[in-house]
Amino acid sequence: GAGVSQSPSNKVTEKGKDVELRCDPISGHTALYWYRQSLGQGLEFLIYFQGNSAPDKSGLPSDRFSAERTGGSVSTLTIQRTQQEDSAVYLCASSWGGGLGETQYFGPGTRLLVL
Amino acid sequence: AQSVSQHNHHVILSEAASLELGCNYSYGGTVNLFWYVQYPGQHLQLLLKYFSGDPLVKGIKGFEAEFIKSKFSFNLRKPSVQWSDTAEYFCALRQVNFNKFYFGSGTKLNVKP
Questions:
Q1: Over the stretch A53-66, which tens digit does the pLDDT of each residue have?
Q2: Are the beta carbons of A108 and B103 separated by less than 8 Å?
Q3: How many beta carbons lie within 10 A of that of residue B48, not counting itself?
């Protein structure tokens, strides 16, 4: 079946503008994760959705960042009033949801550049 | 706080050389451990994983990793690398009671033909 998809693949924006990044997880996956990968850094956990439970937002770096997941499927990560330090690759991953054999499947990422 | 450390940031090898990439973590509870690989221009994909049982785990493309609990390590090995192994490798940890993953900063492997 189809893998995790993300859009747009690239986004260039001006400092201060808002951006929305979209993630379509693998069908049937109940868990969805957002990560940020800055140049030369590892993957930084941002937020985690599991089914209908309240999301784990502990990784969001500031209140400019928010995410939602509609209908337990598609997720949107919103960055308000973007700053240059927000420039990074934003990765989405999904998994079946909490089992012992849990494996994350990653999307191709959205490369965000804030000028 | 939980963390995953990959001390080798950039490794350059010739084909047929042996590979060992270090991964250490700090977390006292039960963990699942993973190695992910990102080939140039491709998505991150799972290389191998450890959940329980035999601490020596075999993955795709001849890779293996050994979980040494006493050393909090999960090093990745391959006896003979190929040019096609050129990629970035990430070690990751999952806290078993929380579905949260922590990734290392990655190791870029460059295999010279």
A1: 889 898 899 999 99
A2: no
A3: 19
